Amino acid sequence: MRVPDRVDRIMVKRMSFFWVGIVILLAVGCRGGGIKLSSLGVSQEQLRQRMRQVIFEAAGSEDAALRSHAMESLGALGGLEAPGLIRKGLHDPVAAVRFAAAGAAGDLKDYTARHLLERLLWDKEESVKLAAAYGLEKLGDDRFGDWYDAVLMGDDARLAAQACILLGKLGRTEFRPDSEEKLWRVLRKVDQAPSVKLQAAEALARLGDERITRKLLAYAGSGYADDRLIAISGLEQLGGQEAWAMLTVLADDSQVEVRLGAIRALGEQASEEDLVLLHGAINHVDTQGDENATVRVRGLAALALGRVGQDSDAGLLYGAMGSEWVYVRVAAARGAIDFLRRRGNL
C-alpha cells in the first residue's frame, strides 16, 4: 500500500531526520507569542518546566507535524505523563502521528500500550503497521522476525526506507540475528532508490557494522545537504577515528544546516569555535529574508546546543522555547531533553 501524499509530506520525506532527532527540517510552523532569544540566567528546573510545557502543548496541537514531533520527544523524555499522551497518539487520525506514537511506546517499553499496538497491526496504513510491529518487538514480542522483509526488498522506496530505519533502531537481538545481511541485500538491490541506500547505510552504522564506513564517507561528500545530514547520523552511530575526522570536516561545511548537524553529532567533542557558531545560529536571521531558512537554522542550533552547550547556555534554550515560531520551540524542547540528561537532571 502506498503512503498518501499528506503522510508523505509530514513523515516519509524526512523520516530519517525524525528518528535521529533532526526534526526541524520542515516548512515553517505557526507563529505564536514569544520572548527575545538571549542568554537568560535560568535554573535547570526552570528549563525543565518550560520544556515539559512546550512538549505537552505540541502533543495537543492541531498541527499533525507538531504532534508527531511531540510523540518523538515524549519517547525520549519518559516520566509519568509521557505514556498516557503517547497512547492518545496511537488513536490519532493522522498516520504520521500514529507511526511516531507506536515507536515512542516501544522506546518507553510501555506494556500498557500493548493492546493498542496490536490493533495497529491492522491499520490501513502500511507504515503504521511497521511501527506497531517495532513497538511490540521492543516489548519482547518475537513474532516479527521476518516482518520487514517484503517491504525492505519491495518497490515502494518510502516504505523500504522506513523499514531500514526501524530495523536499525531495533538493534541486534535474539529475534534478529541477520539484520545486517538483510540491509546489505537492500543496498545491493539492482536499481535501488538512492534514498533507500542511504537509509540502509545509516541503519548498518546503527548496528555497528564497520563495513559501511566507506559508503558513509562517500555519502558525506554528496552534493545534497539531506544526504550529508543522514551520513552524519550514520557516522555518529558508527564512531571511530575516520568517522570523527569526517564529522570534524563537516562541522566546517559550506551549508550552515550541515555544519549544525555535524556539531550536534560531535557532541562534547565539538570545539569552542563550534559553540560560538551555535550561539550565533540560535538567533539566526536569514540574510535573504527566507523565513523557512531562519526557522531551520534556529531549530538545528537548538538541537545541537542540547548536545554541546555548557551550563551557562541553559538560558539560550529557555529563550528559544519562547520563540515566535512553534517549530523552533519544539526543537529547543528536544534539545533541552539532551541538555538536562547530560547533567543527570532527567
Structure commentary:
The radius of gyration is 19 Å and the shape is globular. Helix 3 runs parallel beside helix 19 (314-320) and helix 4 packs parallel to helix 6. The chain has helices at 5-10, 15-20, 44-59, 64-77, 82-89, 95-107, 114-120, 126-138, 149-152, 157-170, 179-188, 194-206, 213-220, 225-238, 241-250, 256-266, 272-281, 291-308, 314-320, 326-342. The chain contains 20 helices and no strands. 63% of the residues lie in helices and 0% in strands. Mean pLDDT is 89; it is low at 1-39. By secondary structure, it is mainly α.
Look at the structure and give the mean pLDDT.
Answer: 89
Q: Estimate the global geometry from the Cα principal axes.
A: globular
Q: How does the helix and strand content classify structurally? A: mainly alpha
Largest sheet: none
H-E order: HHHHHHHHHHHHHHHHHHHH
- Roughly what fraction of the amino acids lie in strands? under 5%
Distance between the termini: 40 Å
Number of strands: 0
Helix content: 55-70%
